[in-house]
Amino acid sequence: MMESQQEPKVTIPPLIPLEYSNRVMLKTILECGDDQIGLFGKTVVVGGWVKSSKEVKREPVAAALKPPMAAEAFPPSPGRKELSCVEVVQSRIPFFKKIIRVFRVSSDSYPGVREKFEPVPKPPPPPPSKFFLQINDGSSISSLMVVIDSAVVPVSAGHVLPTGTCILAQGVLEKSSSHGKQTIELKVEKILHIGTVEPDTYPLSRKRLPLDSLRDYPHIRPRTTTVASITRIRDTLDFAAHTFFHNHGFLHVQVPIITTIDSEGFSEKFQVTTSKKWGLGSGSDADVRHETVKAEQHIEARDKSKLGTGVKPEVKEDFFGRQSYLSVSGRLHLESYACALGNVYSFGPRFRAEKTGSIKQVAEMWVVEVEIAFSQLEDSMKCAEDCFKFLCKWILDHCPQDMKFVTKRIDKTIVHRLEYMMSISYERISYREAVDILRKVTDKTFETKLRWGVPLTAEHLSYLADDHYKRPVIIYDYPKAVKPFYVRLNDDGKTVAAFDMVVPKMGTVITGSQSEERLDMLSARMKEFDLSRDQYEWYQDLRKHGTVKHSGFRLGFDLMVLLMTGLTDVRDVVPFPRTHGKANN
Fold first, then answer.
1. Strand intervals (E) in 58-216
2. Do residue 243 and residue 377 come from a single domain?
3. What are the residues facing 556 on neighbouring strands?
4. Per-residue model confidence (pLDDT) at position 75
5. Looking at CB atoms within 10 Å, which of 41, 167, 327, 454 has the fewest?
6. What is the CATH number of the domain that holds 147?
7. Do the beta carbons of residue 517 and residue 488 sit within 8 Å?
């Protein structure tokens, strides 16, 4: 006896509406794979923005449009009586009467004759249409086909539903009637909301705007497939960074954005002030009564140059009572918590007032900063490498659809590069070794003349990572003159315990160092940098009261997003980029 074959069970994925907007994310419909068949017949509410639209008008019934035809056009059927001429004429009397009415002259031409005209009939309603909309709500690369039948769901004539229209609709999921890539579509039963758009002024009415043009519309560009994908990768990377440090026992500490210290000493800063002597304008602008915070490019105090209009603000009358700046780095503040809680990290924006045209630098960039108590330089280098590899793997594991899109549209080698950097060990060389390698290069001429004691340029670093080693390189033990004052001095008295991680096709992504825990050494370094002892008294206290060896690093978060997406300009991965002379929105 043959056993009956059982049909495979259909898995029905859950379609749980979002708790705070009572709609189903399109991702749950479009990315459930072979289980989509289990969704057929389900009633859902979806919302999104129209990516493309097509209207198909139905043709009227053909018979209604045909004129009456002569009897001769219809040959008599077998057994059917043939009509006489009189009968044919009688059957056409109503038709002749209509012709007479058309040619009847107005009653004004014949006095006394009163003509009664029939009212003009209203034009017939337009034939019903079907709207085929591709909508996307930002949760997925793919869009959902939404079908609206105007005979079932009335759509007013003004709602043409072009690209950019926002729609919220209720309908039934069905098997797609088209022969495209999608296997599922929504047949709309009720329209809950339509947000109209002005096609003539909507920036995305044209297809495939280049990224540099989209920078002029930072408030609209998230609706593009590319920027939406970048944003989802950025969000996943954000979560991955927190996950890594939480998994390794780090505490998240928020450090201030406004600071009174110069932690780097090499970067131009934004000064924060409420003083009106910094040139708030003339006329009505000068009479503004409320406090205004204005960031101005800060020139190093030792330069003795005057600021703004040549009138130095009275610092004591300012909001904070002393010169304050937007933070360039939070590592000094982070040290105070590391010296009490052990391992800590921060995540936030940092600011540099550099008028640079670099495609990898904007005025406001987000960074992850780490500080590890009871550790030395080697420990920070290992942590930085582990963190970098963890982030690469996390993106590949959790963003498969977005990475597939990035590979297709932006960089065909990006997935392979990330997998390669996850699986190999990174090269570690000292600054001196790097200089020796670069001096021996004969097949390439560097723009900047290389000598020991000067910073390595992006060109030098690119050669080491892209051409010489062809893998990430960690360069350590830099000359003390090119690193901040707080970096620990090595035993040779010439170099400091600092490192940079250089990645192929990207450059420096992570910088780190071991901090100087010896009070006398720190004081000497501060004197070399001409720093005020009073201003850094709190920082010196950490060496006076329970000093400990500690190290850390700084990871450029925006640069990591740039690396993961294969793009080259950081302005395309920062939601609202601020650059010299430009701060839209």
1. 129-136, 144-149, 166-175, 184-195
2. yes
3. 367
4. 54
5. 41
6. 2.40.50.140
7. yes
Quick check: helix, strand or coil at residue 207?
coil
Could you please report the per-residue DSSP string of 415-475?
Answer: HHHHHHHHHSPPEEEEHHHHHHHHHT--S---SSPP-TTSPPPHHHHHIIIIIISSS-EEE
User: Closest Cα partner for 566 from 474, 511, 503, 512?
Assistant: 503
DSSP state letters, 36-54: GGGGTT-EEEEEEEEEEEE
Token code pair at residue 452: 């020991």
**Chunked in runs of 10, what are the mean pLDDT values of the chain (585 residues)?**
52 81 94 84 96 82 49 51 60 64 52 53 74 95 94 71 94 85 91 92 86 93 96 98 98 95 77 71 39 44 40 68 91 96 97 88 96 98 98 98 96 97 97 95 88 93 96 98 96 97 97 97 94 91 96 98 97 94 79
Asked, for residue 201, whether it belongs to a domain, the answer is: yes
Radius of gyration of the chain (CA): 36
The domain of 190 spans 26-56+127-207
Q: Is 251 within 8 Å of 263 (Cβ atoms)?
A: no
Task: Note whether 255 and 368 are same-domain residues.
Answer: yes
Q: 138 and 173: one domain?
A: yes
Contact of 521 with 480, CB cutoff 8 Å: no
Distance separating alpha carbons of residues 480 and 466, to the nearest angstrom: 26
Q: Please tell me whether residues 176 and 244 are part of one structural domain.
A: no
Token pair 């939601």 is found at 575
> Any residues with CB less than 8 A from the CB of 397 and at least 6 apart, and which?
none
Cα(247)–Cα(394) distance, integer angstroms: 13
**What is the C-alpha separation between 303 and 264, in angstroms, rounded?**
16
Q: What is the pLDDT of residue 188?
A: 96
Running DSSP on this structure, what letter comes out for residue 114? -
* C-alpha separations of 154 from 125, 170, 192, 198, 438 in Å: 13, 14, 12, 21, 72
Helix (H) or strand (E) holding 56: strand 43-57
Strand partners, 475: 429, 500
Indicate whether 230 and 147 sit together in one domain. no
Give domain status of residue 331, yes or no: yes
Centre a 10 Å sphere on the Cβ of residue 263 and count the other Cβ atoms it contains. Answer: 21
487 and 564 part of one domain: yes
CATH of the domain at 379: 3.30.930.10
Question: What is the total count of domains within the chain?
Answer: 2
Q: Could you tell me which of 532, 229, 245, 199 has the C-alpha nearest to residue 409?
A: 229
Same domain, 372 and 488: yes
Residues 243 and 142 in one domain: no
Tokens of 500: 């940079």
Contact 329/554 with Cβ under 8 angstroms? yes
The answer to whether residue 445 is domain-embedded is yes
